[in-house]
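Narrative of activities, Objective 1.

The group set out to show that a structural description can be obtained from nothing but a protein's sequence at a throughput compatible with the screening campaign. Below is one input-output pair from the validation batch, recorded exactly as produced.
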Amino acid sequence: MSVDKVLDIAKMITTLKIKLPICNETMTKTMLLTPRHKSIATLFDEIF
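Output recorded for this entry:
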């Protein structure tokens, strides 16, 4: 897959950050909803 195509797909991915008030911890969730998003999911893996 070309770099331009990956960047085009990545532009439409949303990442949510939620701060939990009781424990003061921040949770992060990347929303990979469509098959196009899932095709580049490995790029969002922390181990990658």
